[in-house]
Write a structure and sequence with these properties.
Elements: H1 2-22, H2 25-33, H3 44-47, H4 56-67, H5 98-106, H6 109-121, H7 124-142, H8 153-171, H9 181-198, H10 209-225, H11 230-248, H12 260-279, H13 292-302, H14 326-329, H15 333-339, E1 352-355, E2 360-364, E3 377-381, E4 396-401, E5 404-407, H16 420-426, E6 434-436, E7 451-460, E8 463-470, E9 476-484, E10 489-498, E11 502-509, E12 514-520, E13 523-528, E14 534-539, E15 545-550, E16 560-561, E17 569-570, E18 572-580, E19 583-592, E20 599-603, E21 606-611, E22 614-619, E23 631-637, E24 640-645, E25 654-661, E26 666-673, E27 677-681, E28 688-695, E29 701-712, E30 715-718, E31 731-737, E32 740-746, E33 753-761, E34 764-771, E35 774-778, E36 783-793, E37 798-802, E38 806-808
Antiparallel strand pairs: 1-2, 2-3, 3-4, 4-5, 6-11, 7-8, 8-9, 9-10, 10-19, 11-18, 12-13, 13-14, 14-19, 15-18, 16-17, 20-21, 21-22, 23-24, 24-27, 25-26, 25-28, 28-29, 29-30, 31-32, 32-35, 33-34, 33-36, 36-37, 36-38
Helix pairs in contact: 4-6, 6-7, 6-8, 8-9, 8-10, 9-10, 10-11, 10-12, 12-13, 13-15
């Protein structure tokens, strides 16, 4: 009997030894040391999650405030509402960014904050509060509330991650039963409901960072639950994630969502996913980390010398947070150098870099450890491929020196469309660019061909020359060339073409760290507030009128900056104005660290400029542009016409044509060629339109509907002059009687259009409606509403616009 027991015991020991060799040892040891009733497929050390990047001290401070019944959901907010831990109001609408606050509340950030704080100081009261909050949410969710943020795509994924983190934290406590079996089973059942939703194609968000969050949550769930559905979960998430990665980064390995903050966030997500898969010995781990080094090149150069991230698009400002830990997190030596003021890592070699597919030029005066933060830094951009987090910032630039911003991108304020500050900061008015007739433009993906970089020469005779274009404004073409003279001197050459008179504003948004100490119509002198360095702006053509604008909080205007969410303050905006048809600006910017100006002679668009005994000669010449407006139409026979481009074209211009029936059917596509004429025989007895395409030697494309022919009494007649053949919006109008509103899109466009109207309530999606260019809608519930629309034409035009917020009582 004893021998049989001993034999069985020895066999059990042998099996355990074999198992130890196959099982991840740290996970096995953790399950032994941290006794619990529940066994999960991963440990907290492998999970390595946190709700947002913060210090130990900050997490404990947030947790203490939660203990004192302040409902903290994220560090981006300045203040928080009181709450009753025994009766939490999960539908609370708080602050200006109610949707953002609800997002972080519904994703259960408080339980992750409390769990993170527990890991630092082992205060189990934090976990008891986290359990109460989670239990309250589970009961709330069972009531089927009408809360549109409850199952929001982004928030659902984050909630999964926060719940897993809480359970793993509790599971790491020896002999501590904070979560009993009943509650645990209820939580796991909820997680499985999350799985079902996350695996649904209808719920999944393609080609967007929200979809990446969903994929990551599914990957974590597959290993955490470790059940019969895990392999299916894992395969689906990894397949989707590969597609997301291909979309998320372009040929430059720059994230397509137009914001450095989202670029670094996307890199972080893929890096963390890769690290997690590596820790669980998944063979695909390396796939999601490939090309991360290339993506970190952009991170390195978009970081200012003071380690602040450039506030382009929807990116938080330097005053909100820094990225000093990213070099460590991503294992990037160049980024580590850039984010530690040169104290660690490897010094980058290049000072000037270009990301042509993304539309960025970036320059750093030096990478020396000495006076690291005082280096000049310049950013110039034009172009995009995705409208996500995009602002109307094409041809804009930012300039930094002496440790501070000089000309800023004023930020993002919040995500609430219709908010006057949000709308302003997204418009061209809030960027250092050219504004036409005080208007902005719609940056849909279909409009992206109208902007971009043209040409560049880096280190040409010691200077950088980079050009871009912006054809977004009706009838106006703007070329901007930046001349970086590499000695704290910069020239901006704006070359503007139009056949009609317009008001042009060349804008400079001056940071809060400088004062304007002198100015006239063609010059401005700025001074840093904390040192003697000055910045001089000189209009060499002497053809401008200077207007200095500072934001007026009683009305929307130029001259605002938002350094953190829901925060706005006034800054000076320099607006050099002209009213012309064709015109130019030639602007010299000098950073005078030693108060010594450069010597120059300027005449007939020729600049002879001497710096350090070296003379540069620059000729400012217009680029020859393709002309799509001058078309000659000749009738050859009753149903045959000839179309000829008469405008002067660059030597390598290509032409293409579409023949379109009035019902929208494309009868024939004539592909690109060097032939500037088309002779065409209309085949059917229907009305026709003719569309012309031009592409110049820089790759700039233009397209325009040039003619309409109606078939009347057996003949084709050119009726083009009777119609507005190309889509433009003249004005957005609305009126109301009580809570019944009429929204009108004023356009003279002749052809059928499709309008999809979106209504948001308190910053959160409310409903969608189909209509024409006029929407009549009665608001039935009180709240703050934003009405927006997406218009499509048969010609392929796509534009997105929104009205100001309406407060309904």
């Amino acid at each position: 009997m004893f021998e049989n027991k001993l034999k069985k015991y020895l066999i059990w020991i042998l099996l355990m030894i074999i198992l130890l060799k196959k099982v991840d040892v740290p996970m096995f040891e953790n399950s032994i040391q941290n006794f619990s009733n529940h066994t999960y497929g991963i440990t907290i050390d492998i999970y390595n999650y946190e709700p947002f990047s913060e210090t130990e001290k900050a997490y404990i401070s947030y947790a203490d405030k939660l203990m004192n019944e302040k409902l903290i959901v994220h560090k981006v907010f300045d203040d928080f509402p009181d709450y009753n831990r025994k009766n939490i109001n999960w539908d609370i609408q708080y602050g200006e960014s109610q949707g953002t606050y609800q997002l972080y509340l519904q994703c259960l950030n408080p339980i992750a904050i409390l769990s993170m704080a527990y890991r630092y100081n082992n205060n189990e009261e934090y976990l008891l509060l986290a359990k109460d909050i989670l239990n309250s949410w589970l009961n709330y969710e069972k009531s089927n509330p009408e809360n549109r943020m409850l199952w929001y795509d982004h928030g659902t994924a984050l909630r999964v991650e926060n719940i897993i983190y809480f359970l793993l934290t509790v599971n790491s406590i020896e002999n501590q039963k904070i979560v009993d079996n009943n509650l645990h089973n209820e939580i796991v059942l909820s997680l499985k409901e999350h799985v079902e939703l996350l695996m649904s194609e209808e719920f999944y968000t393609k080609n967007h960072n929200h979809g990446i969050f969903q994929d990551r949550a599914l990957i974590y769930l597959s290993y955490f639950l470790n059940d019969d559905s895990s392999s299916e979960m894992l395969k689906l998430a990894k397949d989707r994630l590969s597609t997301q990665k291909d979309f998320a980064f372009n040929q430059d390995m720059v994230h397509v969502e137009n914001s450095p903050g989202y670029h670094i966030g996307a890199v972080d997500m893929f890096y963390k996913i890769s690290q997690f898969l590596n820790d669980v010995n998944d063979v695909d781990a390396k796939h999601y980390q490939s090309n991360i080094d290339d993506a970190n090149k952009f991170n390195t150069y978009i970081t200012k010398p003071n380690t602040g991230l450039a506030e382009i698009g929807d990116t938080n400002s330097i005053l909100q947070g820094k990225i000093s830990g990213t070099g460590y997190r991503f294992n990037s030596e160049n980024l580590l150098y850039a984010t530690t003021l040169g104290k660690k890592g490897k010094k980058p070699i290049e000072k000037s870099v270009l990301f042509p597919y993304s539309g960025y030029y970036l320059y750093r005066e030096h990478w020396n450890k000495e006076n690291f933060i005082e280096s000049d830094w310049l950013m110039f951009k034009s172009g995009y491929t995705s409208k996500t987090h995009k602002h109307a910032d094409d041809l804009s630039f930012m300039l930094y020196s002496n440790g501070y911003d000089i000309f800023v991108d004023p930020g993002w304020y919040n995500y609430v469309m219709g908010n006057k500050y949000r709308d302003y900061l997204m418009s061209s008015h809030a960027h250092n660019t050219i504004v036409v007739d005080d208007k902005t433009y719609s940056y849909t993906e279909e409009n992206s061909y109208k902007v971009g970089l043209l040409d560049y020469k880096l280190d040409e005779n010691g200077i950088d020359i980079v050009s871009g274009f912006n054809n977004m404004y009706k009838g106006v073409e703007i070329d901007r060339t930046i001349y970086n003279l590499k000695n704290n001197k910069y020239i901006i050459f704006d070359d503007i073409k139009s056949e009609e008179e317009h008001n042009y504003k060349q804008l400079f948004h001056v940071s809060e760290f400088l004062d304007i100490i002198d100015s006239n119509d063609n010059e401005a002198l700025l001074k840093f507030k904390n040192n003697s360095t000055t910045v001089k702006i000189t209009q060499l053509l002497k053809n401008t009128n200077l207007e200095i604008i500072k934001g007026d909080f009683d009305k929307q205007n130029y001259g605002y900056i938002s350094r953190r969410i829901n925060h706005i303050e006034s800054i000076p905006t320099l607006s050099f104005n002209q009213t012309e048809e064709n015109t130019q600006y030639i602007t010299l910017i000098e950073i005078l660290k030693n108060e010594q100006q450069c010597e120059y002679i300027f005449s007939d668009n020729r600049l002879e400029l001497t710096l350090d005994d070296f003379t540069n000669i620059i000729h400012f010449e217009s680029r020859q542009r393709s002309d799509i407006n001058k078309i000659q139409i000749n009738k050859i026979s009753d149903n045959t016409f000839k179309f000829t481009h008469l405008g002067m074209q660059p030597s390598e211009t290509s032409y293409a044509w579409y023949i379109i029936k009035e019902n929208g059917e494309v009868e024939e596509r004539i592909t690109w060629s060097s032939e500037n004429t088309l002779e065409y025989f209309f085949k059917d007895q229907e009305n026709y339109l003719v569309k012309s395409y031009l592409r110049d030697d820089y790759g700039v494309r233009k397209q325009k509907m040039i003619a309409k022919f109606d078939y009347i009494n057996g003949q084709f007649f050119d009726v083009s002059k009777n119609y507005e053949l190309n889509f433009y919006i003249n004005k957005l109008k609305y009126s109301n009687i009580g809570n019944k509103y009429t929204f009108t899109v004023d356009t003279n466009y002749f052809w059928d259009t499709s309008y999809k109207w979106y209504i948001y309530k308190d910053g959160v999606y409310y409903t969608t409606l189909q209509s024409n260019n006029i929407l009549e809608y009665e608001f039935e519930e009180p709240g703050n509403y934003t009405v927006s629309f997406y218009v499509k034409t048969k010609n392929g035009d796509r534009e997105f616009w929104n009205y100001p917020i309406l407060s309904i009582k």
